[in-house]
Amino acid sequence: MPRVDPPPVDRAAASRAAIAARRARAEVKRAVATRQRSAVDVLDAAWTAEPALAEASLRVRELLTSIPTLGPTRAARVMEQLGIAQSKRVGGLGPRQRVKLREYVVAREARGKVQSRLVVLAGPTAVGKGTVSQYIRQNYPEVLLSVSATTRPPRPGEVHGEHYFFVSDEEFDRMIEGGEFLEWAVVHNAFRYGTPRPPIQEALSSGKSVLLEIDLQGARNVSRQMPEALLVFLLPPTWEELVRRLIGRGTEDSIEQARRLETAKAELAAQDEFDVKVVNTDVSTAAAEVVELLAVPASR
Ligand SMILES: Nc1nc2c(ncn2[C@@H]2O[C@H](COP(=O)(O)OP(=O)(O)O)[C@@H](O)[C@H]2O)c(=O)[nH]1
Ligand SMILES: Nc1ncnc2c1ncn2[C@@H]1O[C@H](COP(=O)(O)OP(=O)(O)O)[C@@H](O)[C@H]1O
Questions:
Q1: Whose Cα sits closest to atom 8 in ligand 2?
Q2: What distance in angstroms lies between residue 138's CA and the mean position of ligand 1's atoms?
Q3: CA 92, 93, 95, 99 torsion-angle sign
Q4: Distance 142 CA to ligand 2 centre (A)
Q5: 124 assigned binding-site residue
Q6: Tens digits of per-residue pLDDT, 112-166?
Q7: Percent of the chain having pLDDT more than 70?
Q8: Mean pLDDT, the chain, as a whole number?
Q9: Is the pTM of this model over 0.80?
């Protein structure tokens, strides 16, 4: 066998390159620490099709500890919670880790700076969640109302992309796989509903408040993932009025109505898990109360 010599190593050049790379990383960290650049921006630069080298080779730990007021102990704990090894570099993260880290960093950087808020509106079936949300959609265009994806077929008058994204079961599976949902659930034992993550992240990081109208399981899930979200429970003026609304809507047969009323009892029992309760006596008043909750006082 002829001997194959390894290619000559230019040690001096290699060490010059290493020094330059270290300097570039230090520059990124300094920009984040002095708030000249946001950590989200660094992540996005690292994860483009042609990643910026310094950003991608930065360790996650280094990036987190550059964020003002985030110390090494907290950073280590956050990485543990997100399932990211302490030695990981930003460019070496898997898709799910990327989504989770970005979400954390967005929320962290928004703290005390951006006056935006995520509000979750939930409540028992037929209390008027859809009606109040529709009123907000029509009368408060500045509010971003999240549009869910669902496997249920559209009802007459419902518009794809406005009321829901109507998708097939296969498409819904693909969205779950791709980590595209902030939460999803099977509702009323029937169809699947999910909250798409990206529009919410974009809105919150640009300082816009977002309203989610989802079921109780969804509200609990969002609260677990984003404890800073404000949970609002919509209540009927009385139990009798709730029954009247459910029957009056006429969209369910009597067996389904009875089943939903049973569920409604369990849902009403969960109202104390919520931060705020709004009674839906009059649609426009309830809508105004919800919209008011979306505005975060400047002192927060
Ligand atoms: N978890 C979850 N629930 C949702 C989502 N979108 C809508 N829902 C809930 O799904 C339920 C059914 O909604 P819909 O099909 O419009 O019929 P409704 O029961 O007549 O209002 C309502 O309780 C909604 O709050 C979502 O993205 N996630
Ligand atoms: N404040 C209100 N006063 C009277 N009827 C209402 C009010 N809010 C909603 N409704 C009616 O109650 C029924 C259930 O409302 P809906 O928005 O479909 O409930 P949900 O989305 O919570 O299941 C609908 O027929 C709606 O028109």
A1: 128
A2: 19
A3: negative
A4: 23
A5: yes
A6: 554 678 999 999 999 999 999 999 989 988 889 999 999 999 988 999 999 899 9
A7: 94
A8: 90
A9: no
